[in-house]
Structure formats: C-alpha cells, structure tokens
Amino acid sequence: MKRTLGPSEKLYPMPVPLIVGMADGAVDVLAAAWVGTVCGAPPTIAVGLRKVRRTLEFIEASGELTINIPTAAMAAVVDYCGTVSGRTTDKFAATGLTLLPGETVRTPIIQECPYNMECRVASALDVGEYRVLLVEVVGTRADEAVLTADGKLVDVGKLDPLVYIPGTREYRGLGPKVADAYSIGRSIG
Amino acid sequence: MKRTLGPSEKLYPMPVPLIVGMADGAVDVLAAAWVGTVCGAPPTIAVGLRKVRRTLEFIEASGELTINIPTAAMAAVVDYCGTVSGRTTDKFAATGLTLLPGETVRTPIIQECPYNMECRVASALDVGEYRVLLVEVVGTRADEAVLTADGKLVDVGKLDPLVYIPGTREYRGLGPKVADAYSIGRSIG
Questions:
Q1: Confidence (pLDDT) at B189
Q2: Closest CA to B113 of B146, B152, B155
Q3: In A, which residues are within 8 Å of B2 by CB distance?
C-alpha cells in the first residue's frame, strides 16, 4: 500500500562531498548532498548551493571548485563542514583537513579525501533560494591505495565513500556488491 | 600518493532510479544514474539523459516524469531497463514491472519501486549530447512497509535502495549507519 508523502527533494542515496572554493587567497569548504552527475561528454556535475554560502562566493568569484569524496570514517568532519559557517570559524584549523594544490585549476583539493574532482563552472541559474551550478570536471585524482589492481579505476570497496540519507538524516557506508552492471540485465528478456 | 586520472563524470555513490515518461498513451521506462537533487524549495532534481532516449521524447512531450527508487533486489530489472531500448522492446512485458496512476501528474509510477517521485519539467538545457532537465517534485509516495514507525519518513534500512558505482560498473546495497547527521559534527571544534 502506497502512502502519499507530499512534495520532497529527498532522493536515495545521496553523495556528500566536501566542496572547496578559493578566491583572493581565501579558501573555504562545505559539505553538500545536492550534487549529481548530469552529463558524460563533457563530464558535468550539477551542484545546488544556498546563495548565502561563503564557499559559493569564492566559487563564483574564481569560476572554479573542487569536489572531494570523503570516506565513511570522515563522517564527523563532513558533518562539521556542513553545519558551521566559514564566516565565523576556520574549518581547516578545526578539522585538521589539509589542502593540496590543484593540477588543472588554482583551487586546492582536500588531501584526506581519497578521490578528488577539479571543476570549472560552465553555467549557473537560480532556483528558489538556491544557486544551481553546472560544473565541468577538468581533472580527477585518487589515492593509489583506493585504485583497482591495474591502477585505472577507483575500487569503491577501498574508497569506502560516505553516503548521506535525507529525512532520517543519517550517514551510511556502502554495502556489498549485488551485481555487475551492463551484465545482470541479460538474464531478462 | 595521489594519481592523476583525467577528466571524468564519476561520482561516488550514485542513485539509479527508474524514470517513466508517458505521451499519447505510450509509456516507457529507463534507468539513469545521472540524477541529483539540486534545490529544496521548490524541491528540484537535475536529470541528465542522452537525447536519443525514447523516454525523453515522452517526457518532453508531456512535461512530466516519475522517478522511482528500486530496491537492491531489483538490480537485474534496473540493468535491463538501462541497457535496452523501448523502441525495440516492451520493457514492462519483459520485466513484469507494473504501473500505478500518478496522483499529481498523468504519468504513472512503478508499483514495485517502494519510493516514487512525481515531477514536472521546470527547465531544460543541452550539455553536449545530453539533455539536462531540472524537474520539480510535486508529489512523493512510499510503500507503508518502508516507512519509519511514525509513518512520516522513509526508513532507508527498509527501503534498501539500489546504488550504482560507475567505473567498475557495480550495483551495491547500502551499508550500516555510521553516524547521525546534524549531530556527529558537534564532536569537533
């Protein structure tokens, strides 16, 4: 039996990356779950941020950002970055997160996140109180420790990415593999 | 040590909903991982679809779609819906998926998916070979069996949503809860 729950933005599951912006030598970081891939060529991600965010100011000033995937073990740091403002707190000093220079953008990546995406803003539009950015991913990096044996792909079991669940407001880890994509569907039809 | 992997749209983790479009009495379904929430008010989701998709034709003709969250047990059905075309195959006949009428849109939802979002297209733009839709969620429904005890929220442990992992192309389930959001971060600073 279906129950009606009303309009909602909740989607299952959600990623919860740390997003870095830098302008005029100042850098800030936030955690955001409203992030999703929308295109493969060029590689493009949609990011929704409340307009009041200080990191957004930096992103719009520089036209750049980095998207950094945290591990499940980083839940406390991510939660902190998502719930305090860089206007009143130095989140890097508080969390111990450290930065590495970008390779394709001037904005740094977060060293402690094992997978990092360097991005440039391609377009932006306003939706309600949110700024929706479409950002092109111009480079990615990963810790060697989270790669597959051939070094070409991320081994998600090693990456152990943090997952966000809206509504009940939980952080979760990933569960075991249930099937190979582009393969298991052949059992049908 | 970080290794450079080049530009990529891969994000971890990704949802992998079944998306339904209907026009002129014809209905089709596809599986898409390029879906992400971008705004809470109005509740808005970004969806990236290749322009050749038949379901996209229906969505653009009607201005509506439904986004249906499958369980981990539905991996084969989802994979099938993501890899064959409705131009040559009746995906509903092949998979046994059944439809329920929409409550707020004319487009139906998928009964077997325990969480369903009814949406209207708010805007659209082209990015490369993809059409990026920003869609407003005008209604959601869930199976009573996947709700929390108070009936107000989805209990994600009961929902058991399917998760997509790009690159290694895996379907996974969710793992255990690691922390409460808007709470664990208070242990810092």
A1: 72
A2: B146
A3: 100, 109, 116, 141-144
Element (DSSP H or E) covering residue A83: helix A75-83
d(CA B47, CA B45): 6
Cβ pairs bridging A and B (under 8 Å): 391
What is the rounded CA–CA span in Å between residue B117 and residue B139?
6
Report pLDDT for A124: 96
Q: Domains of chain B (ranges plus CATH)?
A: 14-187 (2.30.110.10)
pLDDT value of position B86? 87
Nearest-CA neighbor of B69 among B169, B141, B168? B141
Give the pLDDT score at A149. 97
Between CA A75 and CA B157 the distance in angstroms is: 18
Strands (DSSP E) along chain B, which ranges?
A: 2-4, 14-15, 18-23, 26-31, 35-40, 43-50, 64-69, 99-100, 109-110, 115-127, 130-143, 163-165, 170-180
Shortest distance, CA B28 to any CA of chain A (angstroms): 16
CB B77 within 8 A of CB B97: yes
Work out the mean pLDDT of chain B and round it to a whole number: 97
Give residue B69's region: left, alpha or beta (phi > 0; psi -120 to 50): beta
pTM, two decimals, is 0.97
The residue whose two tokens read 């040559």 is B88
Q: How far apart are CA A188 and CA B182, in angstroms?
A: 42
Residues of A in contact with B44 (CB under 8 A): 9, 48, 127-128, 130, 132
Percent of chain A with pLDDT over 90: 97
pLDDT in tens, B121-151: 999 999 998 999 999 999 999 999 999 999 9
Which residues fall within 8 angstroms of residue A52, CB to CB, at 6 or more apart? Answer: none
B71 φ/ψ angles, rounded to the nearest 5 degrees? -85, 165
pLDDT tens track for A152-163:
999 999 999 999
Beta-carbon neighbour count of residue A155 at 10 Å?
17
